[in-house]
Write a structure and sequence with these properties.
Helix content: under 10%
Distance between the termini: 29 Å
Order of helices and strands: HEEEEEEEEEEEEEEEEEEE
Structural class: mainly beta
Number of helices: 1
Shape: globular
């Protein structure tokens, strides 16, 4: 997350980063159109536009390939039907591999200023996500919980929170962890496995787990916000060796946050204010042992609004993110945009 103007950083998925709210962007597309194989709610221009750039009008590359070669094109973003309430905040999307479960942060239940973790479901990928229900084990109702991220099997979850027992007495945000033997049956998260990641007097935001649970990307507040990576050898180990991810972070004083990676960790998306506004960027690499390329703005998504909290579907065909383009204030909504020149 990026901190709101004239206030202390609040929560991973709750507010904008250091800027006044811009005028609302009125270019939202149609809502919840179906995406072949994408497993996600998508925006207008998604299916019909897919395949542009090929001689026969049919895409010849996968969605992952067009991200990797930098030619990706995205249709007009559209708000998710039940996660675009202008009176509340909805941010930090994470969508399951089958596209049927959406985890996100919202203040819909407890009111402004207190973010909880909610889960919304749908019967199939042709339907809209339902109205999310707050996970009572992951949420306190009195403190902020945000940026849920899970392993591929949905048995391990991390969040950021300033809850008592998870954050410091001064309200510091830390990354909390919970593991369970059954998907969607989480207990109360704590600092287990995070002792060398969470540091006193430093806010830790935006956790993102690799699908196997062995690498943790996050964005602590150090000379602005930086994107860091910690790792472990096996699931029973603690995360350690946290270090800034090379190349992608901007200059000191800028904010680079909300890291989200493709399933193979070759593509990273994140939020940055390096251009003077909260926008979405991406970078690629040949494999997860290599360094990322120089970041580029995500095409077709950024505008005068505040945009952040990206998440890429597992097939690479749908980008989820949060934006204030409907409200023009700090009440973010969830959106999706579909790759138009690639196939699953």
């Amino acid at each position: 997350m990026l901190p709101r103007i004239a206030q202390v950083v609040v929560c991973v998925g709750l507010v904008g980063c250091g800027f006044s709210a811009k005028p609302a962007d009125t270019t939202g597309g149609t809502v919840d159109a179906a995406s072949p194989g994408g497993g996600s709610d998508v925006g207008s221009g998604s299916d019909a536009g897919r395949g542009s750039g090929s001689d026969a009008g049919v895409a010849t590359k996968t969605c992952m390939q067009v991200w990797m070669d930098g030619t990706v094109q995205l249709g007009t973003p559209a708000p998710l039907t039940n996660q675009s309430n202008s009176d509340v905040i909805e941010r930090d999307p994470w969508v399951s591999m089958d596209g049927k479960r959406l985890y996100y942060a919202t203040d819909r239940i407890t009111g402004p200023g207190t973010s909880d973790i909610a889960v919304a479901t749908r019967p199939n990928t042709q339907a809209a996500f339902g109205t999310g229900a707050v996970d009572v084990n992951l949420s306190t109702g009195t403190n902020d919980e945000s940026r849920p991220s899970l392993t591929l099997d949905e048995k391990i979850i991390v969040i950021a929170s300033n809850r008592s027992g998870g954050g410091s007495p001064n309200g510091q945000f830390n990354i909390l962890y919970n593991a369970t033997g059954t998907p969607n049956m989480f207990g109360t998260p704590d600092m287990n496995h995070m002792s060398t990641v969470d540091q006193t007097q430093v806010d830790h935001f935006d956790p993102f787990l690799s699908p196997d649970g062995l690498r943790l990307y996050f964005a602590p507040v150090i000379a602005g916000q930086r994107i860091y990576l910690a790792s472990r050898g096996q699931l029973n180990d603690d995360f350690s060796g946290a270090a800034a991810v090379p190349i992608i972070n901007g200059a000191n004083g800028s904010h680079d946050a909300d890291p989200a990676l493709s399933a193979d960790e070759k593509i990273i998306l994140f939020t940055s204010d390096r251009g003077g506004n909260n926008d979405l960027y991406f970078a690629t690499r040949p494999d997860k042992a290599q360094q990322f390329s120089s970041p580029k703005p995500v095409p077709g998504v950024n505008g005068t609004s505040l945009d952040g909290d990206p998440f890429l579907s597992f097939d690479g065909c749908t980008l989820y993110f949060a934006s204030n383009r409907l409200t023009g204030n700090l009440n973010y909504d969830l959106f999706s945009a579909t790759v138009t020149n690639g196939v699953p």
